[in-house]
Design goal:
This protein is mostly helical. Helices cover 49% and strands 7% of the residues. The protein has a three-stranded antiparallel beta sheet with strand order 1-2-3, with no helix packed on it. A two-stranded antiparallel ribbon has the order 4-5. A two-stranded antiparallel sheet has the order 6-7. Strand 2 (42-45) and strand 3 form a beta hairpin. The longest helix has 20 residues, at 79-98. It is globular and about 75 Å long.
Length: 330
């Protein structure tokens, strides 16, 4: 696939709500509105006519969520005056959400160590809906074909695999929805290769909270797989994925910004991705340093963050699993 100079790629392929709409619950005191409080209620002043009213009865700007009006007429009248302030605040809220360190993925439910960010370092089990690290899977080989977590026998046919997935999908399991999308993308376990169906499932999985699904949709738009090629939409979905904690999507955003010459933003993305285990982002920061676009302190910080990540995911049983089967490196 075509690459964004050092960008991460993965299998795969509507529009969801803009990121800013996910921030409407934020309370921001940015000087756009004057408020006074009492023991029983909060009063706000209309940004157009200056009329005071109860906070609950005011009409709030639904873009920046910062300015209040006494009614829709005042909101419409003040629109042109407020436009520049609104766009500035929307951009600020977008960047606040985008560059915040995302939540860490759940630990392995058996050994309670941090889960590797590489998908080769763990496996999804459709019997219980758990991601389990390969170290725990390997060390529990003595169980035979039983799941290390719930002790359910492993499926013995494609029909049984798909049947279990469907049960997990009915339970709104985001990992199962995402996984079935991947099966359709590659035509595995008896499912026909169907990019449109894969995209449909990935959209659903993303809405249920799966970051990798949005990453794959972004990749689809970047290469034009099942959809018309659209770099803006690719970046849009990578942003959704990055905010939810997908390090590969985060690296892609860093590569996009680097190619545009926005080195500060590229460095921010790379640094967040390094903290979540992206070796490509670590290499990206090294390249920026060699080119004089990042400082020695930046590169040193990146190396330390990556070492912390390695220390958190390392275990003897994971090392043993990787030696036993080189395909499950982590």
């Amino acid at each position: 696939m075509p690459e964004i100079n050092d960008a991460e790629s993965a299998a795969g392929c509507g529009d969801d709500k803009p990121i800013i709409e996910k921030l409407q619950s934020l309370k921001v005191d940015d000087g756009f509105s004057n408020t006074s409080t009492s023991l029983n209620n909060t009063l706000s002043i209309c940004a157009c006519c200056g009329k005071e009213g109860s906070d609950n009865d005011m009409n709030t700007c639904n873009k920046c969520n910062s300015v209040k009006y006494c009614n829709a007429a005042c909101k419409k009248k003040n629109r042109s005056k407020h436009k520049k302030q609104c766009e500035k605040r929307v951009a600020e809220l977008h960047d606040e959400a985008l560059f915040e360190q995302p939540p860490q993925v759940d630990d392995c439910p058996i050994c309670f160590l941090r889960m590797p960010s590489l998908w080769t370092g763990y496996r999804y089990n459709s019997c219980c809906g758990k991601d389990i690290c390969n170290g725990c899977i390997h060390v529990n080989i003595r169980l035979g074909d039983l799941c290390p977590f719930c002790r359910t026998p492993a499926p013995t046919s494609d029909e049984e695999i798909i049947g279990r997935m469907k049960k997990r999908i009915k339970a709104e399991d985001a990992l199962a929805v995402y996984g079935q999308g991947c099966l359709h993308a590659d035509g595995l376990h008896g499912l026909p290769k169907n990019t449109a169906k894969a995209l449909e499932l990935w959209h659903r999985a993303g809405e249920l909270g799966n970051a990798s699904a949005y990453h794959n949709i972004g990749n689809a738009y970047y290469i034009g797989n099942g959809v018309q090629r659209d770099i803006k939409k690719a970046q849009h979905y990578w942003e959704f994925a990055a905010i939810k904690g997908d390090a590969m999507a985060r690296h892609n955003l860093g590569a996009v910004e680097k190619n545009r010459g926005n080195i500060d933003n590229a460095l921010k993305h790379y640094m967040i991705a390094v903290k979540d285990g992206s070796t490509k982002s670590l290499h990206g920061i090294k390249t920026l340093f060699k080119d004089g676009q990042a400082t020695k302190d930046d590169y040193t910080k990146a190396l330390r963050l990556y070492q912390v990540y390695l220390d958190e995911i390392q275990s003897d049983q994971r090392d043993e699993a990787a030696k036993h089967d080189e395909r499950i490196y982590y």
